[in-house]
């Protein structure tokens, strides 16, 4: 029977029976897969220590019949993708990613890898916002920061826009919470460059926008987001 080997990032592991784990994984070339890691919960299992999130994993598995659950055969754990201080923020990004890309979706691995690298190179809070914004954009849930998401009109860089029902609107289409020119410039800057910083107020507003998009799409919010409501 065919076996595949590919790089992957672990999204989620769920206990199955007394000894096994079901793993949801984004692979570089095979999209999102679900595999059973038999015996992974046994103390001596090699899977037990290697199947961890936020590491680049090299996996070998046998695909399931007609696209169903496959069987994990081997895992090699390569480098850790984030510094220890960014772990919790990165795990929340993974929790959101888990809901964005479903089984059979060819996307996800490159997007998550890019988001995590972006997060790791920035200050914690700005980095997490930038990582989540990038993922939501790649998932097709966001427009760009300089066009109205309703009428499509390009908005002058120095004009304010408005946040309404998880959409960024021009002055003609919306009158919700103001998203200043400075905030939009800050968001674009943090996503593009490492050394751009935002005011606390701008960061909170950005987080509020991300929360709004996740809510709009029925995504369960990470804990730290719920506190900030
Ligand atoms: Zn408009």
Assign the CATH topology of the largest domain.
de novo design (two linked rop proteins)
Distance between the termini: 50 Å
**Top-tier CATH class of the largest domain:** Mainly Alpha
Secondary structure tally, helices: 7
Mean pLDDT: 92
Net shape:
elongated
Strand arrangement in the largest pleated sheet: 1-2-3-5-4
CATH H-level name of the largest domain... which superfamily?
Answer: Recombination protein O, C-terminal domain
Task: Kindly provide the radius of gyration, computed on alpha-carbon positions and rounded to a whole number of angstroms.
Answer: 20 Å
Name the hetero compounds present. zinc ion
Work out the helicity level. 25-40%
Largest sheet: 5 strands, mixed, barrel
Level-2 CATH architecture of the largest domain: Up-down Bundle
User: What are the segments in which pLDDT stays under 50 over at least 5 consecutive residues?
Assistant: none
How many distinct domains? Answer: 2
Order of helices and strands: EEEHEEHHHEEEHHH
Tally of DSSP β-strands: 8
Estimated share of beta-strand residues = 15-25%
Look at the helices and sheets and give the structural class: alpha+beta
Task: Describe the structure in your own words.
The protein has 2 domains: about 5-80, Beta Barrel (OB fold (Dihydrolipoamide Acetyltransferase, E2P)), CATH 2.40.50.140; about 85-229, de novo design (two linked rop proteins) (Up-down Bundle). It contains 7 helices and 8 strands. The chain has helices at about 45-50, 85-100, 110-120, 125-140, 180-190, 200-215, 225-229; strands at about 5-15, 20-25, 30-35, 55-60, 70-80, 160-165, 165-170, 175-180. A hairpin with a 3-residue loop joins strand 1 and strand 2.
């Amino acid at each position: 029977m065919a076996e595949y080997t590919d790089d992957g990032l672990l999204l989620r592991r769920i206990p199955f029976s007394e000894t096994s784990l079901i793993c949801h994984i984004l692979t570089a070339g095979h999209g999102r897969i679900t595999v059973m890691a038999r015996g992974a919960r046994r103390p001596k299992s090699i899977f037990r220590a290697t199947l961890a999130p936020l590491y680049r994993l090299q996996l070998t598995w046998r695909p399931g019949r007609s696209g169903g659950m496959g069987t994990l055969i081997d895992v090699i754990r390569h480098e850790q993708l984030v510094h220890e201080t960014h772990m919790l923020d990165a795990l929340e990004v993974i929790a959101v990613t888990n809901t964005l890309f479903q089984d059979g979706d060819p996307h996800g691995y490159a997007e998550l890898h890019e988001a995590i690298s972006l997060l790791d190179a920035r200050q914690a809070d700005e980095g997490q916002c930038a990582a989540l914004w990038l993922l939501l954009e790649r998932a097709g849930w966001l427009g760009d920061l300089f066009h109205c998401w309703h009428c499509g009109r390009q908005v002058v860089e120095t004009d304010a826009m408005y946040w309404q029902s998880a959409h960024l609107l021009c002055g003609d289409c919306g009158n919700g919470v103001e998203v200043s020119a400075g905030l939009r410039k800050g968001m674009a800057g943090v996503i593009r460059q490492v050394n751009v910083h935002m005011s606390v107020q701008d960061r909170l507003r950005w987080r509020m926008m991300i929360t709004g998009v996740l809510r709009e799409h029925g995504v369960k919010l990470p804990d730290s987001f719920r506190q900030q409501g």
